[in-house]
Amino acid sequence: MANNNSATSTAQLRLASLSAQLDTTAPRDPVTEILETSLPPVRLHADALSALLDGQDQTWRKWTFEQLKHPLFEYQYNVPKEELVTRNQERTRHLAKLGFRPTWTEPKDNIDKDKFMQIQDALSYFDNGLSTLNGAHFGLYYGSIRELGSEAVQNKWLPLADTFEVPGCFALTELGHGSNPRGIETEAHWDFKEGCYIINTPNTTAQKYWIGAAAETAYMSVVWAQLYIPHPTDPSHPPSHKGIHAFLVPIRDLTTRSPLPGVTIRNCGSKSGLNGVDNGRLWFDHVKVPRHMCLDKYGGVNEQGVYESFFGDNNDQRFGGQLVNLSEGRVGLSISSDNISKTALTIAVRYGLTRRQFGARQVGELETLIMDYKLHQRRLYPLLAQTYAQHFAARAIARLRDADKTDLKLLKQFHVISSGLKSLHTWHLLDTLQATREACGGQGLKSSNRIGQMKADCDVMATYEGDNQVMLITVAKGCINDYKPTRIPPLANFTSQHFSDSTLLSPKFQLDLFQHHIHASAHRLHAAIDLSRAQAKAQGTPNIGLDKILDTHSALSQEFARAVIEHWILSEFIAQETLSSSSTSGTGSSPLTLMRQLHALWKLDMDQNIIRRRYLDEPVQERIRDLVGGLLHRVHENITPLVDAFGVPDHLLGPIAGDWVQANVAEGSEDI
Amino acid sequence: MANNNSATSTAQLRLASLSAQLDTTAPRDPVTEILETSLPPVRLHADALSALLDGQDQTWRKWTFEQLKHPLFEYQYNVPKEELVTRNQERTRHLAKLGFRPTWTEPKDNIDKDKFMQIQDALSYFDNGLSTLNGAHFGLYYGSIRELGSEAVQNKWLPLADTFEVPGCFALTELGHGSNPRGIETEAHWDFKEGCYIINTPNTTAQKYWIGAAAETAYMSVVWAQLYIPHPTDPSHPPSHKGIHAFLVPIRDLTTRSPLPGVTIRNCGSKSGLNGVDNGRLWFDHVKVPRHMCLDKYGGVNEQGVYESFFGDNNDQRFGGQLVNLSEGRVGLSISSDNISKTALTIAVRYGLTRRQFGARQVGELETLIMDYKLHQRRLYPLLAQTYAQHFAARAIARLRDADKTDLKLLKQFHVISSGLKSLHTWHLLDTLQATREACGGQGLKSSNRIGQMKADCDVMATYEGDNQVMLITVAKGCINDYKPTRIPPLANFTSQHFSDSTLLSPKFQLDLFQHHIHASAHRLHAAIDLSRAQAKAQGTPNIGLDKILDTHSALSQEFARAVIEHWILSEFIAQETLSSSSTSGTGSSPLTLMRQLHALWKLDMDQNIIRRRYLDEPVQERIRDLVGGLLHRVHENITPLVDAFGVPDHLLGPIAGDWVQANVAEGSEDI
Ligand SMILES: Cc1cc2nc3c(=O)[nH]c(=O)nc-3n(C[C@H](O)[C@H](O)[C@H](O)COP(=O)(O)OP(=O)(O)OC[C@H]3O[C@@H](n4cnc5c(N)ncnc54)[C@H](O)[C@@H]3O)c2cc1C
Ligand SMILES: Cc1cc2nc3c(=O)[nH]c(=O)nc-3n(C[C@H](O)[C@H](O)[C@H](O)COP(=O)(O)OP(=O)(O)OC[C@H]3O[C@@H](n4cnc5c(N)ncnc54)[C@H](O)[C@@H]3O)c2cc1C
């Protein structure tokens, strides 16, 4: 420790307080001393920071924010869901007319990537219902045709999808099959005589369920089904099961909008949020689908009527290959989560800087700003720091997405990390929305102030495109063998060491500790796995699967998975901090350094998984808490530019982020 | 520890796994061993347990649940808030006709307390909007008249309120003044000439805000205002400020329903939940209020035109005395929170016992029940145990409410503990709703399955009747002097002790540790307070207030407040367990014992505040985690009766708690 006398053991605190009563030199609390010695002031310009976050050129971002001032984008509350759905369709069509396309809908070589990234990114601040509808149509539906469809199918259907003239949906999930899509029951039988596929819903649990845009909006659907090929000549022979394939199936008449023959459509009904998306249920009664409408890049019946597949007989790998779009969707969810967190934090912090409560001695005297309460700072600023950290992690995984797709190791890393990030980013969003909602008191519930509404609309993010808990199982399963016992370095020893403040604040120490935490949790998990295997063997059931074992040790599995992803986030943050510090100058510490220090030390101070492991001695642990106190103070000094740098425009923030007294005058403000 | 060899140090786990490969005796994991040696099976009958929870005679409870089958109580979704409000008015009127009155509306000596407790309790399972409307009218409005009004006022207005013929509201909060109602700006000036009070809203921040039932429903309002008495003869003399008083003010014409002259009413607008309650905003423009309409039990202008008060000049104490109703409301919130947690847990557990996902080797094979995953159990069962614990705490605070009101020490304890319980119970509810929502996957969002809707409607519980964070400040402030350094016993030493399983599972050990945690946090907080005081003194600002100091050490303050309340909850639970064990017989452990053990050990294993303090040695801490594993196993064996005992009837549970496949057939289930 920098100065051993500054340890906050209670004995020393008492001593300090006693001696203060004896002489006149002021006793100083550890946080005051830290601010003077270990934490230099921060040099911060919101514009420069904003450029670090979102790039120097933000033309298209700003353009999009301008478009959102169109009356079509006024927020609506207290309207039936049918109206929200219609409005969302209009908004999507309007944007498509303006030239909006998500990145992946552009021809690969002729693309102003940055433009489309900016537009997409900017939209996500606005409304998760609109993002989700766009994601279902442009991401899942359009993306599947583009990734898996033949050229003819693409040439016919993509232009119609481009303009949202013929909206589509993506029908994988069934009533009985969500997290485990491999269990779906919808069937596609190849019919030799007719030369087409026949799609059928065999029972109630096989109905397609939750299909975004299916209830009202979509004319077309990408339908996932188990493919069966009958024996070409012997009808008594059981058909050959080829696993899951995707089919492009018209579900509504293009002129009458009625369901087509053989197709039954129902609404999933009212939801506690996201009612701007019409989720539907679909049944198929022996619907004939022409051969070319199978999205058969990786497998299907060829012109000769013979099934052939890039993956041969490996049904499981084929399905994985077909679903690469879903991983891309997860990256999108991480980015939107962060943007919505930024919006909520901007609202709550701005309100905290204008809202006063308590602290006056008499009626009429100015009360204390709630943002000046340390308790309020502790509630919001660590979330702010984590949002900064995640911002760079989401950008990094997006770069990994765009990297070489033939590198299988990279692909696997992309799949695993994007799954893990999706969990932590969306959970962080839900935590942030709850904390900011409460931080705004009753105002947080008022729809026009957005936070309550965002809570309702974003809750689903923990579930769709992969349930968060299941995603962390994916991470544990996907990574545990990268940390084979033999490859785990001997455990570092952090205890009984006295670290100076500058060490505790340094990227190296923080990253080392996060890394150590991965190794230590991998170590414990391996030991537990070995024990379970040995036990199973002794009991004569040696074929126990890894899934089962990981579940038996679910606390350890989840701890390990989180450790891997938290480390990834911190290391990407540090990489960015290093990059940016070489490009900026001036004295004092940089805002990214401040955010990274708070983010990492807050975890070391508060993360239940980390503190239970006692990697650090108690005095060091106490010193970390004091450092956190100092960092929160520095954040508070700079809080306005720190949230301004997010660049969320005023029209997306709601009245409490601005002049909320004026917004509440009696005249003309009825029922907002 | 019972058996030292069973410690799960990684070295030992490795050894066990290695030796298993060498001989044929099965290695056993610590949880298996714990189940055989330390945790006897549980004897459990849902009915007996239900009687323990809710009493032997549940006639009125069952009666109420029956009433809720009336079509008027069908859940409505996707309807405008105006319709929800009208429906809630109808429901309240209907119940009033059936004879429903909350406990406190009955004449004190002539009351079937148990009857009204049961009815009130049963209602809270149904809908928080209806509870809140009833709470605003019968609790806050009615209660204020009854507690503070003259006999004449009571005789006139209570009968009209009884039947909900003349609904009323309670107008304390203002746009500018929420958590700190002492800062309200609405003014009441005594007018000597006219012999009445004149109520006025001096500016925009003084508008009454969030007033439940004010926007549409209420004819009357209890309006809180700063009372000023002018000098009887000298108009140039500044008026004398008497602090806050309550006035019964008609706000709408009883026949036309229009706002009365001088009263402006606006709607607070759409909210992210609880839209069945019409929250409104009120302005008063020099509205005359007759002398007798001041609710002046503790202070007001007498017939001679002279101000007199039970509390003399102590404005602050007078306000506290007048607000005792709010504390009663907090008890009600704790009870409802627990009931809603029970409902959500029942839904999620029943779904978990019918929902299958993963684990089949081929399409069509039965998958694993999600409730069989240990990960899923870890997510839900500790919340179940805490709900059991809280159930008894809420009952205990209700008994304290009914105790002798002249005992000032008891009254203070009631105020402080009810504030703290309100925070922890409502936060527990929000955690439970989030966890159960996610545990049901997408189905958790479907309005008809209730959880998502309850989330939206209950979010406000963390804010109204006292913001949770502010409530914990109240606890810290109210209790820290009960733990004066001189009165704190020398800290017990738990470290370096090896506890047997039976000790770790015992009520005594668990309560001792919770108690120790209070003392240890009080100790740290006192040291910090002393330091701050000494520092302030040395800096020449010795008058620093306790509020400010507690905020400076906000982490310690909140830790201390939580410790006090958690200990209260555990000790009430243990008291009940002891009582009930003497009245039951049979072998095996009792369900309350199981729930208490899991509740307490889960906190010792997971509570961030406790584990960071390292009260226990690491091997003991690891053993506790293993014991938790064993307890979760025992809970799983008994999970059906454990939730059945809550007695939430099927019609309040939604389709996923029952036959959700049948509820989703294509025919007749459109848009549920
Ligand atoms: C609003 C909305 C829109 C959607 N849009 C679409 C769409 O357009 N197209 C589409 O195809 N699908 C869509 N979905 C479906 C979505 O992808 C699924 O909801 C998601 O995959 C989760 O499946 P589930 O809801 O069936 O939950 P389940 O899989 O039933 O999960 C329930 C619970 O079980 C737990 N669980 C499951 N497996 C395990 C395990 N092995 N171990 C421990 N716990 C486990 C989970 O953690 C979860 O808490 C949408 C869903 C919603 C709610
Ligand atoms: C739906 C609804 C119904 C209601 N019904 C009624 C009603 O019928 N009648 C009525 O009179 N009122 C009613 N209320 C008002 C309710 O009691 C207030 O909302 C509540 O007291 C909180 O006040 P606030 O919303 O102004 O939040 P604020 O007091 O502004 O609090 C905002 C934030 O500041 C924080 N904060 C405040 N003080 C401190 C501090 N000292 N230290 C640290 N942090 C602090 C809080 O923790 C909170 O997070 C209702 C409110 C709602 C939302």
Q: Most extensive interface: pair and counts? A: A-B, 124 and 124 residues
The shape of chain A is: globular
Query: In CATH terms, what is the fold-level topology of the largest domain in chain A?
Result: Butyryl-CoA Dehydrogenase, subunit A, domain 3
What is the CATH level 1 assignment of the largest domain in chain A?
Mainly Alpha
Oligomerization: homodimer
The SS-based structural class of chain A is alpha+beta
CATH architecture of the largest domain in chain A: Up-down Bundle
Pick out the low-confidence regions of chain A: 1-8, 20-24
Helix content of chain A: 40-55%
- The rounded distance between the terminal residues' Cα atoms of chain A is 55 Å
**Average pLDDT metric of chain A:** 91
Proportion of β residues of chain A? 5-15%
Largest sheet of chain A: 6 strands, mixed
Summed up, the helix count of chain A is: 22
Ligand species: flavin-adenine dinucleotide
Main location (chains A, B): other
Pathway (chains A, B): Lipid metabolism; peroxisomal fatty acid beta-oxidation
Protein name (chains A, B): Acyl-coenzyme A oxidase
Family (chains A, B): Belongs to the acyl-CoA oxidase family.
